[in-house]
Design a protein that fits this description.
binds N-carbamoyl-L-aspartate, Rossmann fold, 2 domains, four-stranded parallel sheet, five-stranded parallel sheet, 14% strand, alpha/beta, 35% helix
Length: 307
């Protein structure tokens, strides 16, 4: 719908808007009580057609922290999708009951279709193996707090770069900053899709390298973004079992890493980071979880037009 601002792709937000949201989230972290009534009377609907812990609960926590209320469903089987209802009809309905919608769906493009039929803003909370812009906002707030800048960073992505939607969205976001270098570490079968390489990296002239060997590139990295092998997107279990433990980050593999490396992971973690790494001060993934709530508070206020 016209005049309704949705967030489907991270590039829907300008660099200046992201800076504004990072600044607002930082103020909220310092003084959450000052924002406790900003969304009084507003309702967030969370429509999750795929499993989630952090994304759904951080959205709900964000709206509740702003004084608003939440409704929704956390599995497709408990919605009318199970009866064959289209995304368009579901969202037409839910937009009569809510002021803003966060949607996760296994089909690429479903939240975009939803936004075209909604009376209220729709936020893409993950669409298949495509995009995940609010995880990227979380990642950006984390990077800002860990590094104090977005420019001149070498970011390594390791694991499932093919199906990992958080990877695709964060690469798009980082491609707008000066001096970004990207290092892609994956097994052959899980390489970054060529459309992301062409339309994002090559189009923006971003220097990048591809390797299967994490330790050889470790010393270059300012940020190491580890990812889970996305079991649910594989066509057969055998391939998943063969590839799932391709990379396991252990303390010894960090021996040649920078002293100020930041290790990020969108979570959930399966095997790809050993729990022994959690004690390392460079492990930022649980700090990252906390930032997810505050950046979503900033996003909800922005899309609802609340200053
Ligand atoms: C990610 C996702 O859903 O894409 N999780 C999240 O939202 N924090 C990453 C993943 O599931 O591996």
């Amino acid at each position: 719908m016209e005049n309704v601002r949705s967030l489907i792709n991270i590039l829907d937000l300008s660099v200046e808007e992201i800076d504004g949201m990072v600044a607002l989230a930082t103020k909220m972290l310092a003084d959450p009580a000052a924002y406790a009534h900003k969304c009084n009377g507003k309702i967030l609907a969370t429509l999750f057609f795929e499993p989630s812990t952090r994304t759904r609960l951080s959205f709900e926590s964000a709206m509740l922290s702003l004084g608003g209320q939440v409704l929704g469903f956390s599995e497709a089987s408990s919605s009318s999708a199970a009866k064959g209802e289209s995304v368009a009809d579901t969202v037409r309905t839910v937009s009569c009951y809510s002021d803003i919608i966060a949607m996760r769906h296994p089909k690429e493009g479903a939240p975009l279709v939803a936004s075209q039929h909604s009376l209220v803003p729709v936020i893409n909370a993950g669409d298949g193996g495509h995009n995940h812009p609010t995880q990227t906002l979380t990642d950006l707030l984390t990077i800002h707090h860990e590094k104090g800048r977005f420019d001149n960073l070498t970011v390594g992505f390791c694991g499932d770069l093919k199906f990992g939607r958080t990877v695709h969205s964060l690469i798009s976001a980082m491609s707008r900053y000066t001096g970004t270098k990207i290092v892609l570490v994956s097994p052959e079968e899980l390489k970054l899709p060529s459309y992301v390489k062409k339309e994002v990296l090559q189009k923006n002239g971003i220097p990048y390298e591809q390797t299967t060997d994490l330790e050889s590139v470790m010393p270059e990295l300012d940020i190491l973004y580890m990812t889970r092998v996305q079991r649910e997107r594989f066509f057969n279990e055998e391939d998943y079992l063969r590839l799932k433990d391709s990379y396991i980050l252990t303390p010894d593999k960090l021996h040649n890493a920078k002293a100020d490396l930041s290790i990020l992971h969108p979570l959930p973690r399966v095997n790809e980071i050993s729990v022994a790494v959690d004690q390392d001060p460079r492990a930022a993934y649980f700090r990252q979880v906390r930032y997810g709530r505050y950046i979503r508070m900033a996003l909800i206020m922005k899309l609802l037009g609340i200053a």
